[in-house]
Amino acid sequence: MASSSVSSFVLLRAGLPRAALRTVALLGCLLAWHLATVQRVDLGFITFRNVPSPREVAESAWALARSPLVLEHLGASLRRVFIGFGLATVVGVALGLAVGRARWAEDTLLPPLEVLRPIPAVAWIPLAILMFPSSEASMVFITFVGALFPVLLSTVHGVEAVDARLVASARSLGAGRLAVFGEVVLPGALPSIVTGLAIGMGTAWFCLVTAEMISGQFGIGYYTWMSYTIQNYADIVVGMLFIGVLGMGSSALVRRAGQLLMPWRAVQEARR
């Protein structure tokens, strides 16, 4: 019986394009959500009695889409995310390349960064409010902190994973330090850097929403928190879905940019 189910899944997977399969997966989750809310499923440790149904959430999403405030909420969140993420990209990649290539940078920069890394971005919020004159700057800083360390560590690991034999071969052919860095180290580390950027973008959204809940006036996180305070549960789910879609879309943009920077990867995947 189990082997029959596995075979059916394999046949289904082979006969469907990837986009169609992913759509089916999303529709399956939507159906499960609908059934759980309509049937008021109560398993004891989790209950769906008070969870809004997909129809209620869709109605709330449509009401928000028609509201003039939707552009202010989206614009505020997108601006904060991309400014913080952009700063984290520049600082994280630069520090990661330095730490990965220079022993002096590893000895002087990595220890304090490792001390700061486990501190959650949420814990920075009170200090950020004290350090920056405006709540806008403090929210951008929280976003920057959240995205910085995934980018930094992925860059360091990417640089360290470059095959030393490739570096030695380039040097034996007469390549200088800059040529080795630009032609061997950076291309070799680029896949890890792009992965770190994609992770950092998701973390940036997580941290931004938390910051907006505390000190924002506009933004998706602020909208979600205000919906909770007035007990509008459908709007809470709308805010959550907006965050998920925006985070997924922005991470996809980062991965797409990485593909454009690494055309050789597309060739390798096409040969598989």
UniProtKB/TrEMBL annotation:
Show the GO cellular component annotation of the record.
plasma membrane
What residue intervals traverse the membrane? 20-38, 81-103, 115-132, 139-159, 179-198, 205-224, 236-254
| Species annotation | Variovorax gossypii
Give any Pfam family that matches. BPD_transp_1
- Matches recorded under InterPro entries: MetI-like (IPR000515), MetI-like_sf (IPR035906)
The protein's topology relative to the membrane is: Multi-pass membrane protein
Could you confirm whether the keyword Transmembrane helix appears in this record?
yes
Task: Name the chain's protein.
Answer: ABC transporter permease
Highest classification ranks of the organism: Bacteria, Pseudomonadati, Pseudomonadota, Betaproteobacteria, Burkholderiales
Q: Which domain of life is it from?
A: Bacteria
Location in the cell reads: Cell membrane
Q: Which UniProt keywords apply?
A: Cell membrane, Membrane, Transmembrane, Transmembrane helix, Transport
Q: Which part of the chain is the ABC transmembrane type-1 domain?
A: 74-254
Similarity remark: Belongs to the binding-protein-dependent transport system permease family.
